[in-house]
Write a structure and sequence with these properties.
By secondary structure, this protein is an alpha/beta fold. The protein has 15 helices and 21 strands. It binds ligand PMT. Ligand PMT binds next to α11, α13 and β16.
Length: 426
């Protein structure tokens, strides 16, 4: 076959227009979906919009018809639509279903497998990948029912994009805002390559990975705290690598200055006790737990309610510290323990101490790093690690070259997946 013909074929393949079924449910963020529609059409996708009844209270079908260039579907048994394209045909038409905004209600109905309107029926009938952009009040997002629905949807293989942290239309501040249309369009584009058979494998599709990252802050009084130099970069890089492997990622993060990877379920915390509570709140749904956080081993026994005043002539202050819970050891002892990976931050005999922690904390794997060096470990862009695990009673080690934390994270996630799958098969 001549090169020209091959090139034509390849061009034909790459010219495949991705067909996106864009579901809009009821929420004030529906107005942002108009911009998302415009961006997706501009990227060359063929977009058909499906609106729930609730969505029509916020924006008209005519808006989406004008932006998508296709008729808008609003009813399950819509004579006009049935004439054009019935709901089963529509479900088969879609290469990708995106629901933006995804209200708490639509998430609950999808999690329950309901088909009481067109959008839920299409999601049951389709074999296409389904992406959801949650949008709701922060208290609704945090509600255990919503968190349970989010995890159930992940177990189905759906992928959540966001939600985002920030000020909400209702005046609250917190997690629950829909990601901005530009960010959603970028994430949807990234999901598109996986529509073609040659796309990167998604070994963690349908799996939940929970990662702790960053420092903890242990309050001394309202203005002082005990903390450390963790920037969160290592844990955030692992979250990004797990996302790319197809996982739903809960990222439990201490106070850091870096932005969370788009698409994670971010659970921001301050103290070790809050980090433990957040970890336990998602443990039932977690398949792999990675403890990258630099957790304070101790906290002040009694944090003062008011700023502690220095007394005249006072030359020293004694702080009575008590031990914090060991988060990763608690997770590893849990009756529904996930595959548990810890870190070891050592300044000498790194691998010896790490091997000891692997056993003492009942971990499946441990990632050792030397934190006495300034070019790796805390707040550095690079790291040098040794991954240790037991295999048939023998200690195994994988020691990749020193590299950027993002690159190391990819390598570590690959090895974690391999050992996770090996143990699953046993
Ligand atoms: O965040 P960066 O700036 O990128 O820096 C990355 C890092 C150096 C923080 C990271 O690579 C790292 O080493 N994280 C673990 C730091 C730490 O607390 O190590 P440790 O040896 O003290 O703890 C051992 C393990 O137990 C860790 O998985 C830790 O998360 C966990 N732990 C420790 C204490 C505690 N109370 N609860 C825990 O879960």
């Amino acid at each position: 076959m001549s090169d020209k013909r091959v090139i034509t074929d390849e061009r034909m393949m790459s010219a495949k227009v991705v067909r996106i079924l864009l579901g809009v449910s009821g929420g004030i963020a529906a107005y942002k979906t108009a911009q998302l529609t415009r961006l997706l059409v501009k990227s060359g996708a063929d977009v058909r919009v499906v609106m729930t009844e609730g969505a029509q209270a916020f924006i008209t079908p005519l808006t989406f018809q004008a932006l998508s260039g296709n008729s808008v579907h609003t009813h399950l048994l819509d004579p006009e639509a049935e004439a054009g394209m019935g709901h089963i045909e529509l479900a088969k038409w879609a290469d990708l279903i995106v629901i933006a905004p995804a209200s708490a209600d639509i998430m609950a109905r999808l999690a329950a497998g309901m088909a009481n309107d067109l959008l839920t029926t299409l999601c049951l009938a389709t074999e296409a990948k389904v992406l959801l952009a949650p949008a709701m009040n922060q208290a609704m997002w945090r509600h255990p029912a919503t968190q349970r629905n989010a995890t159930q949807l992940t177990d189905y293989g759906y992928r959540l994009l966001g939600p985002d942290q920030g000020e909400q239309a209702c005046g609250d501040v917190g997690l629950g805002r829909m990601l901005e249309p530009e960010a959603l369009a970028e994430l949807i584009q990234e999901a598109m390559p996986s529509l073609s058979p040659s796309a990167a494998p998604q070994p963690l599709a349908g799996k939940v990975v929970t990662i702790t990252a960053g420092p903890t802050r242990e309050a001394v009084d309202p203005v002082r705290y005990i903390s450390n130099h963790s920037s969160g970069k290592m844990g955030f890089a692992l979250a990004e690598a797990a996302l790319q492997a197809g996982a739903h990622v809960n990222l439990i993060a201490g106070p850091v200055q870096i932005a969370a990877p788009k698409g994670v379920n971010l659970l921001p915390v301050q103290s070790a006790e809050q980090m433990l509570a957040a970890s336990l709140s998602v443990i039932d749904q977690t398949d792999i737990f990675i403890a990258a956080a630099a957790v304070a081993d101790f906290r002040p026994a009694n944090a003062a309610d008011q700023k502690m005043k220095k007394q005249a002539g006072q030359n020293e202050m004694v702080l009575h510290l008590v031990q914090n819970p060991d988060i990763v050891a608690t997770i590893a002892q849990h009756e529904q323990r996930p595959f548990t990976v810890g870190f070891a931050a050592e300044t000498q005999d790194v691998e010896i101490y790490a091997a000891d922690k692997l056993v003492r904390k009942n971990l499946d794997m441990i990632i050792a790093n030397d934190v006495s060096r300034t070019d790796i470990g805390f707040n550095s862009d690079e790291n040098a690690v040794t991954l240790l695990w037991q295999h048939e009673g023998m200690l195994q080690a994988h020691k990749p070259e020193q590299a950027a934390k993002q690159q190391l994270a990819q390598d570590l996630i690959e090895h974690i997946i391999a050992q996770f799958c090996h143990l699953k098969q046993k």
